[in-house]
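[Automated response] Your request has been received and processed.

Submitted sequence:
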Amino acid sequence: MATFAHFGVPTKRKQPGETYLEGAKVYITDPASNPYKIEFVRCEKGCPLPKPIQTTPHAAYIVDDIQAAVKGADIVLPPTAMSDKLTIAFIKIGDALLELMQMGK
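Generated structure:
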């Protein structure tokens, strides 16, 4: 089962309340602070994330088992631990880019 988390929008403009993720060379906003659950994503030059993540809007979903969710999918970014409480992956379904998020494992 997947639960909607946020809508990610790449941008080139600085946004209020950005957080910098040093290893990814990316600035993100907190979708919980936006009434429409929008997360703005601003990548620096040299950002190591795959181009689709840097340039394509995405929908994000919380899943119970990220390994099962990516099985057989067109994987853009394989499951990657962001912290001990968050693992993410990006997949494509047709032309749609999706971020999958597993919390707490």
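Summary generated for your ticket: The mean pLDDT is 95. The chain is about 10% helix and 50% strand.
If you did not submit this request, please reply to this message.
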